[in-house]
């Protein structure tokens, strides 16, 4: 466990700034006295792009690399063409820092609204592959903009990339009480990638005899997310399916305001990056309505990744207690951050 | 309106046989006396593949082509390697007969269970592209089965293919009371295909000034499916996103037992094919537990496509009335079919 924490902070766009401020507040409150927290803020996102045309210059990528971890708020603004910041900044970071484990826990906390009737018990983790699949940027277009245009998107999958994320998922499942791992893909249609995923999954499974496994097609998985979410423990899946499933998971567990994520480079060759699953929500930016809980839970994942397990648990317990004690009175971003900072310190 | 109906029937696997029998029962009951119904059954699916190694020989494809429409039960069995029947039979039919509109209505009928609390009003239609996207079978694998394997899946999208399905969706939205069309894609990541879809969508939109349009990323769309499904009227989307979204839609509208679909070739150059969204459910095959309603609703889509609008509505009304009158006593496949046959005839 390191006795200093050198954190890069990318507030980004919209509500990013506001929620990150609360994340840092809670982080300062929870850290042991003897851990020195240093933060460096990076001005990246829509404003920067409008000003300079830059999304993520190499110099800043090099600088970001020097940190223990990255806390990111949200990236994206309607004033920027779709894809520019996503590909040029967010995905560039995930790929450059080899964040091959995109970790997204889903838990239905007490006293939180779910659109599902009957309040099923929900407590699962999605291990989403983060550096391959249809996210690689392969593909292109021919005769662009004409009636004869052909546009392709290539999902690239390697045994190297699949095996490492599948291993990570098995290791996570193996230390959870239910020890269950579900592979989600679409191997009846995407046969090349799907069969490779399945084959590697089955091979690694042999090393984890205590882990129960199953396989679901992605379409069927969405059904179980709403009819039987309690059946899931750990899920491992490809980059795009993971993107879709984790938004759905967030929706059934009380909304995107509570969904945390870690873009993890498990070996620690590069800094891992933690961010709420939600976007920049420009419609509520500056109103104090943004819920910083997802960012604060992302800080817990950050602490866990860096070996501060006790502090991670303190944050998660504080969030559970805070949600349980709510009386429905609307609170501002700042008030929620304050309440959680008090709880983790106390 | 044709005064004869020359129907190809592919019962397929598992519960396919049982549900198709009920579909034909209701079809016979609803058809006007003077419409001559001729059916020809095709032995395709898992059993045939085990026996002969064939999925869909050219001679049968040619023969199928002679019919006015195809009614399909379900394809797939765990004894057949994943992908063999899907690619070799079901998708082969969709591609060979240029079923570029995969039409999937979602409606929450009265007195049906939904996993969603508060029973939102749900009545939308997904127009799923059926002949492109990641379903084209492009891609492959290199160094297959070795630790150095690379597997790709190529999503192929053409302006030709996108424009025709987008036009179909606008035309459908334009005659519905709410006149709303949502494009679902992931154009912030799949920029080549996504931008082409969006550009064509925006262009066609200009010809339909009365249709309100919006755009959602596929991940965000899944959130609205469970938190605000009443916001959707018509959705147009790519083949894979449509696959995922329509299973989720089926789940929130009372389950896959009620979800109908049409694989439509709008110009009628080839026979269109109608099938329940559900699979072959080998676990309940032969038990009489399969709900034939999805198949019967698919027969309604078939009739509408062939110009028998009044008969289509009769079936849909009968299903609504049948569901409303249910008292919860379990009914067999046959009993449900009988009840609906009586209603449409009466
Ligand atoms: C903004 C977008 C590129 C991103 C993704 O698709 O991964 C987001 O949806 C997420 O899930 O983090
Ligand atoms: C069986 C499978 C190939 C098919 C698909 O993916 O289209 C099914 O899921 C469907 O939705 O009709």
Automatic annotation (TrEMBL), chains A, B:
The Gene Ontology biological process terms listed for this entry are: L-leucine biosynthetic process
Name its cellular compartments: Cytoplasm
**Top-rank taxon, per record:** Bacteria
* Positions bound to substrate: 94, 104, 128, 219
User: For this UniProt entry, what's an example GO CC term?
Assistant: cytoplasm
Among InterPro entries, the record links this protein to: ICDH/IPMDH, IsoCit/isopropylmalate_DH_CS, IsoPropMal-DH-like_dom, LeuB_actb
Supply the EC number(s): 1.1.1.85
Residues recorded as binding Mg(2+), renumbered to this chain, are 219, 243, 247
Family note: Belongs to the isocitrate and isopropylmalate dehydrogenases family. LeuB type 2 subfamily.
This chain belongs to the protein called 3-isopropylmalate dehydrogenase
Species the sequence originates in: Streptomyces marianii
Question: Highest lineage ranks of the organism?
Answer: Bacteria, Bacillati, Actinomycetota, Actinomycetes, Kitasatosporales
């Amino acid at each position: 466990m390191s006795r200093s924490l050198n954190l890069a902070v990318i507030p980004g766009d919209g509500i990013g700034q506001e929620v990150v401020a609360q994340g840092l507040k809670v982080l300062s409150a929870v850290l042991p006295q003897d851990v020195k927290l240093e933060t460096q803020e990076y001005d990246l996102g829509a404003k920067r792009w409008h000003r300079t045309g830059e999304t993520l210059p190499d110099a800043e990528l090099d600088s970001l690399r020097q940190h223990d971890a990255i806390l990111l708020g949200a990236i994206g603004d309607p004033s920027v063409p779709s894809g520019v910041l996503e590909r040029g900044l967010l995905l560039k970071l995930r790929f450059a820092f080899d964040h091959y484990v995109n970790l997204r826990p889903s838990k239905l906390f007490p006293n939180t609204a779910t659109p599902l009737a009957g309040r099923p018990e929900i407590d699962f983790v999605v291990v989403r592959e983060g550096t391959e699949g249809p996210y690689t940027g392969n593909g292109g277009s021919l005769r662009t903009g004409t009636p004869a245009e052909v546009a392709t998107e290539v999902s690239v999958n390697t045994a190297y990339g699949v095996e490492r994320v599948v291993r990570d998922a098995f290791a996570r499942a193996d230390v959870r009480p239910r020890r269950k791992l579900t592979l989600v893909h679409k191997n009846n249609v995407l046969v090349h990638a799907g069969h490779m995923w399945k084959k590697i999954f089955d091979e690694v499974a042999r090393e984890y005899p205590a882990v129960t496994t199953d396989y679901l097609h992605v379409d069927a998985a969405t059904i179980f997310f709403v009819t039987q979410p309690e059946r899931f423990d750990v899920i491992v899946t490809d980059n795009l399916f993971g993107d879709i499933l984790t938004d759905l998971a967030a929706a059934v567990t009380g909304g995107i305001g509570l969904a945390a994520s870690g873009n993890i480079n498990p070996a620690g060759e590069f800094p891992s990056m933690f961010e709420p699953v939600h976007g920049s929500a420009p419609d509520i930016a500056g109103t104090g309505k943004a819920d910083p809980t997802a960012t604060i839970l992302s800080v817990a994942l950050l602490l866990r990744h860096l070996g501060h397990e006790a502090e991670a648990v303190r944050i998660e317990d504080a969030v559970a207690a805070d949600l349980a004690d709510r009386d429905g009175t609307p609170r501002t971003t700042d008030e929620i951050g304050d309440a959680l900072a008090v709880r983790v310190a106390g």
